[in-house]
């Protein structure tokens, strides 16, 4: 079974749906209700309303998973925010909040699940970075810093948890058609982004979910500490 944070929308939701297609049971954790296709698709998706920046909510999520399943095979950390702004308009408090949700909460969620992952012979963690975490992007100081941190955190966690047969990998999506991307980009930025993608289109959330679920599953059993870029070639231009 898998736990997916940010499971109510976008890449997290598509990941829940793909897990269900593959026969997994899923706990979707999100601030927002999962009242979506993910749940309609199957009763294999259970929902926990949780704020990943809240320690008590994370504890509740681990307890729920333990009570229902007594194990976890994969944890996917897709909850995230993106508030784009130039450096001068990004206050240190806004910068901290982005790091809190995208980076610190990724660490806190994985840390909380380590014992359960290790208990049953190991498991898999998939974190979500971004091409913005791999190189500079327009107006993304806080977001890029948080996502670069996720890449570094992934290799560190992989290194440290390998002895317990816990693999930790990261997916760095390029521009993907989700509410987050639509909120964060004005029409001019969208045009520039499409020009910068060699495949000249956005990713569908399902295309990211396909890679996430592959890294979560046993088919990728010898892959750990890696960041896989899924971006239509955006980062090679
Ligand atoms: P989305 O807005 O569709 O989904 C994000 C989900 O995270 C939402 O359901 C939201 O409620 C949840 N969330 C936010 N803060 C939370 C919190 N504190 N606690 C619990 N849940 C919280 O966005 P998305 O595009 O699917 O993004 C998913 C991940 O993919 C993010 O980490 C994002 O940075 C990353 N990403 C997205 C893109 C893109 O173009 N869409 C590109 C690269 C990386």
TrEMBL record:
<feature type="domain" description="Ketoreductase">
    <location>
        <begin position="2"/>
        <end position="174"/>
    </location>
</feature>
<dbReference type="Pfam" id="PF13561">
    <property type="entry name" value="adh_short_C2"/>
</dbReference>
<dbReference type="InterPro" id="IPR002347">
    <property type="entry name" value="SDR_fam"/>
</dbReference>
<dbReference type="GO" id="GO:0016491">
    <property type="term" value="F:oxidoreductase activity"/>
</dbReference>
<protein>
    <submittedName>
        <fullName>SDR family NAD(P)-dependent oxidoreductase</fullName>
        <ecNumber>1.1.1.-</ecNumber>
    </submittedName>
</protein>
<comment type="similarity">
    <text>Belongs to the short-chain dehydrogenases/reductases (SDR) family.</text>
</comment>
<dbReference type="InterPro" id="IPR057326">
    <property type="entry name" value="KR_dom"/>
</dbReference>
<dbReference type="InterPro" id="IPR020904">
    <property type="entry name" value="Sc_DH/Rdtase_CS"/>
</dbReference>
<keyword id="KW-0560">Oxidoreductase</keyword>
<dbReference type="InterPro" id="IPR036291">
    <property type="entry name" value="NAD(P)-bd_dom_sf"/>
</dbReference>
